[in-house]
Design a protein that fits this description.
With 203 residues, this protein is α/β, with parallel strands linked by helices. The chain is 56% helix and 13% strand. Bound molecules: thymidine-5'-diphosphate.
Length: 203
C-alpha cells in the first residue's frame, strides 16, 4: 500500500495536536510507517525559519517567502522521500495555512501565493486535509488557557475569522481533498468525525 499525505489545518486553538497523534497511532496500527511532521518546520533549516516567522516582525511578502522557503526544504528532504518509500505523512499544516494566514488573514495577493505554491511543490498536494473548524471566539477562549502567544496567536478575532474564511475558500476550490471537522465539540466527538471520514474513504 502506498503512503498517504494527510494534513491538519485550522485556526490557532482548533486543537489539532491530540488528533494528529491519534491519527498517526491509528495508521501505525494498520501497519503503515508514519512520519509525523509540521509546518513551518520539519527540518533543521525549516525549524530555524519557523522561529523567525513566529517571533520577529516582518512584512507579508517576507513572511510568505519564508514559509515557502521552509516548505521547499521540508518537501524535498522529508515529505517526498517518505512518500516515495511508501510511508504515510501526517503534517500539522501545509500550504492551505499560507493561503489562509498570509492570504486571507494578512491580505496578501492570492495569485502570487498560487505561483509560489506551484514553484515550491508542483503537483504535490495532500490526499486528505482535515480542517478543524470552529468560531474564532471559541478558539480565543481555548488559547487563553494555553501557553504564551506567538505573533499569530496575538492577532484579534477579526484576523482569525478572515483566516477561517480563507480555509473555507480553499475547501470550496478542492472539495474532494478537504473534510471539514466541527472542532467546537468535545475531543471525543471531534475524533469520531475524523474516524468517520477515514472510514468513508475506506482507509
Ligand atoms: P501552530 O501550527 O499553531 O503550532 P503550535 O500549535 O505548536 O503553536 O503554529 C504555527 C503558526 O504559523 C500558526 O499561527 C499559523 C502560522 N502559519 C502561517 O502563518 N503560514 C503558514 O504557511 C504556516 C504553515 C503556518
Amino acid at each position: 500500500m502506498s503512503g498517504r499525505f494527510i494534513t491538519f489545518e485550522g485556526i490557532d486553538g482548533a486543537g489539532k495536536s491530540t488528533h494528529i497523534a491519534a491519527l498517526a497511532e491509528r495508521l501505525r496500527r494498520s501497519g503503515a510507517e508514519v512520519v509525523c511532521t509540521r509546518e513551518p518546520g520539519g527540518t533543521e533549516l525549516a525549524e530555524k525559519l519557523r522561529d523567525l516567522v513566529l517571533h520577529l516582525s516582518m512584512d507579508a511578502l517576507t513572511e510568505a517567502m519564508l514559509v515557502f522557503a521552509a516548505r521547499r526544504d521540508h518537501v524535498q528532504r522529508v515529505i517526498q522521500p517518505a512518500l516515495a518509500r511508501g510511508a504515510s505523512v501526517v503534517c500539522d499544516r501545509f500550504t492551505d495555512a499560507t493561503f489562509a494566514y498570509q492570504g486571507s488573514g494578512r491580505g496578501f495577493d492570492l495569485a502570487l501565493l498560487a505561483q509560489l505554491e506551484s514553484w515550491v511543490h508542483g503537483d504535490l498536494q495532500p490526499a486528505l486535509t482535515l480542517w478543524l473548524d470552529l468560531p474564532a471566539e471559541t478558539a480565543a477562549r481555548r488559547r487563553a488557557e494555553a501557553r504564551a502567544a506567538d505573533r499569530f496567536e496575538r492577532e484579534d478575532q477579526a484576523f482569525f475569522e478572515r483566516v477561517r474564511a480563507g480555509y473555507a475558500a480553499r475547501m470550496a476550490a478542492a472539495p474532494q481533498r478537504f473534510a471539514r471537522i466541527d472542532s467546537s465539540l468535545a475531543k471525543p466527538a471531534v475524533w469520531a468525525q475524523i474516524e468517520a471520514e477515514l472510514e468513508r474513504r475506506g482507509w
